């Protein structure tokens, strides 16, 4: 069974930085596309950043130039480095692994970690 566990959230002042980590169990990590989502209070969950198994990345426009997604397949961990944080970045952040297993797509989610940016 695949499990994803996020860490690194917390309270930070505007302009500060945080690095989120998501550690995965199981043997799907290296072949998976890995994503970070966030859900602000009272809003829908949105895709923030993604990285494919080959290392291609993409970001939502609101975080381009400030956030960086990376992966370490040896450690089964995906990271989200967040710089120049803004109050509107406040949200619960979730990681997701997307993999293909026997021709079927499978999505796995972490439990989320709270990020709060004070003004």
Oligomer status: single chain
Flag low-confidence runs.
none
Which percent range fits the helix content? Answer: under 10%
Output the helix-strand order: EEEEEEEEEEE
Supply database-style keywords.
4-stranded antiparallel β-sheet; 7-stranded mixed β-sheet; 119 residues; 0% helix; mainly beta
SSE layout:
Layout: E1 4-7, E2 10-13, E3 18-24, E4 33-39, E5 46-51, E6 57-59, E7 67-72, E8 77-82, E9 91-101, E10 104-109, E11 113-118
Parallel strand pairs: 2-11
Antiparallel strand pairs: 1-3, 3-8, 4-5, 4-9, 5-6, 7-8, 9-10, 9-11
Give an overview in words.
The structure is a single chain. The chain has 119 residues and is mainly β. 0% of the residues lie in helices and 55% in strands. The strands form two sheets. Strands 2, 4, 5, 6, 9, 10 and 11 form a seven-stranded mixed sheet that branches. Strands 1-3-8-7 form a four-stranded antiparallel sheet, with no helix packed on it. A hairpin with a 6-residue loop joins strand 4 and strand 5 (46-51).
Quick recap:
Helices cover 0% and strands 55% of the residues. It has 119 residues and is mostly beta strands.
